[in-house]
Known about the structure:
Four copies of one chain form a homotetramer. The first copy, chain A, is mostly helical.
Amino acid sequence: xxxxxxxAVRSEAARISILQATAAQFAARGWDxxxxxxxxxxxxxSKQTIYRWWPSKAGLVxxxxxxxxxxxxxxxPADTGxxxxxxxxxxTTVFVFADExxxxxxxRSLVAxxxxxxxxxxxxRDALGASSALQARLETARALGExxxxxxxxxxxxxxxxxxxxxxITRASTAPExxxxxxxxxxxxxxxxxG
Amino acid sequence: xxxxxxxAVRSEAARISILQATAAQFAARGWDxxxxxxxxxxxxxSKQTIYRWWPSKAGLVxxxxxxxxxxxxxxxPADTGxxxxxxxxxxTTVFVFADExxxxxxxRSLVAxxxxxxxxxxxxRDALGASSALQARLETARALGExxxxxxxxxxxxxxxxxxxxxxITRASTAPExxxxxxxxxxxxxxxxxG
Amino acid sequence: xxxxxxxAVRSEAARISILQATAAQFAARGWDxxxxxxxxxxxxxSKQTIYRWWPSKAGLVxxxxxxxxxxxxxxxPADTGxxxxxxxxxxTTVFVFADExxxxxxxRSLVAxxxxxxxxxxxxRDALGASSALQARLETARALGExxxxxxxxxxxxxxxxxxxxxxITRASTAPExxxxxxxxxxxxxxxxxG
Amino acid sequence: xxxxxxxAVRSEAARISILQATAAQFAARGWDxxxxxxxxxxxxxSKQTIYRWWPSKAGLVxxxxxxxxxxxxxxxPADTGxxxxxxxxxxTTVFVFADExxxxxxxRSLVAxxxxxxxxxxxxRDALGASSALQARLETARALGExxxxxxxxxxxxxxxxxxxxxxITRASTAPExxxxxxxxxxxxxxxxxG
DNA sequence: TCCTAAGCGAGACGGTACGTCCGGTCTTTGC
DNA sequence: GCAAAGACCGGACGTACCGTCTCGCTTAGGA
Lengths: 195, 195, 195, 195
């Protein structure tokens, strides 16, 4: 009944090995010194096996992001009932992680990769929480009246994620009070404190 | 009187030709297909002349930015007395420029270059107005009471520039109302309308 | 009684299809651009089916020669009673065939294949008539007294075939009188005309 | 006054090193396992330096032949006044050399290379003496009356060289009397012994 | 009638080499 | 002493085949 595809089946071991090697090399050498040959060698795989399944090194990186091999936790803001505190904590976490010397190269490389490939761009945006988790947190806050009913949630989350990206690009040093000020700037007083 | 250095002096013609060729190739082929050999050929210059004066292709791009060869006008927000309107107009200008098909590659490449090189990163940030012009406009607004006295100006401008960068990365399509909503998100109600 | 082998039997259709594809590809692309994958594709056969039955591409070519798929007629000298005339005619035929633009590649490739593989080497030699037909014609001539009783028949035929091979290798152009002169050189006056 | 070409000059060391490596690899691995990458590695040279100066591996081999790196002595027949003896000695020398186990691969590879490339073909023919030295010896013999005035010298030498090539191809074993019989066959009685 | 061995197509896999591009360095010549 | 021309070593690109190896199916004797 099944239409019966013939021929050997794709090697899952090879797939995993390739993605892990990609993640390792990407973190170690950065986006534009990332070499398919290097990945193949590190993965113990022939180049052709990579080219058979991925169109480019961008595709490899996008898949690594999908599998969570590059950004291990996917930065989910907590929900303690206090939106600003939660966002500040979340932003602090991201900044601390991104400023970790080992991760700085990784983050910059992610931005570079995102700039050169649409897939990676979207993946990075999601991985930084822009779409799902962060959005959800904002919606909760709006439902609870912490934000105005017409607050531009999408734009708020874009601003937050954008700030992270800009931070990565400019290699700005992070003062401890920065996340709080950023959250303050971005959430403004969409819910008037006096309201 | 002159302290007497002998030998030929640096050729200004070569310098200009190189930077112009860099700008042209950068816009045409993007950051990571930008080749020093290609620049040298297009500039009618030997590779050595490039390596003698610049340490890397990032340095070339940084110099192009400095000379305004890549972002011809440096996006300066107007000052009509209405901060939100001015910022919205400014943001619209930037988005329109960035979404121009010919400029999209350029912008993405700038982000990629910025991510890989600190010099370029800072240069890009300034070129997008984050430091000087945008900052000045915000200060004016604060002085006029459009913003609270303790409004986090630096963070507001970072959020705006960050949003631009994120927009470039994710290749998001721009709805006409988007700049307004972003400005709304970022300027929030730092000065309460009811205050 | 039968020693009992079970399982499907070798597909004659596949065998033929493979040899025909080999012959076609060999004539079209030459010996060292001859690809097993190409043969398999052209024959509508899997690579494994080829490797199951032949050890190498040389084996394939040798089999093609055996089946007469490469040198359709096996150049046989006529016997009109005049040895020199017969050999000249035969040599002319071979030269004309070999100089045919479509066949030149084929001949050169045959020599290349012969040089790299013993089986093919012997097969080619036979196909050019060195052993059987040519030899037989010389023996007839000797029996009739056209050649001395102690004429070195084997060496005469080797010289003739060798000249063909050299001609193929050097891509020499063929003057019409060349075959006659060669026959003259090689048969010399083993039977003295004055004798 | 000199027309003045600028830029670094071709490295003679590299040229020599490449040709020597080619000769070594060719003798060791044969024509169709001869790899440009292998030559480059053995010569301590980048691939580009090879491709800059030679169009193909055939060109490399042809140059090796020109420089005498493959066939060290260029097989010149002696002149003792006895043509047949000289040719027999010469042919014996060639056969002995070609049957040397180390040289057999070399000779076969030369034939293969010659079959695939015209330059190499002509070079091989010359190196085997067909054109100059052998021809000269035959002319001397004709002048002395050892050969008829109208003896087809070119064809005689072609037959001799052709026999060598055929010998190489068919991997025939060489009986000691073979060269004599071949010379007998080829020189026949162009000068009638009774004349 | 099953069982089992073999043939066969498809095709994934680790490799080797291809010929090209470009990086960064060095050398030669001319101004 | 700068600049052009350009050769050089090295590393990676993406492609083509190699020969081996599963897969899932078909074919054809023995049990």
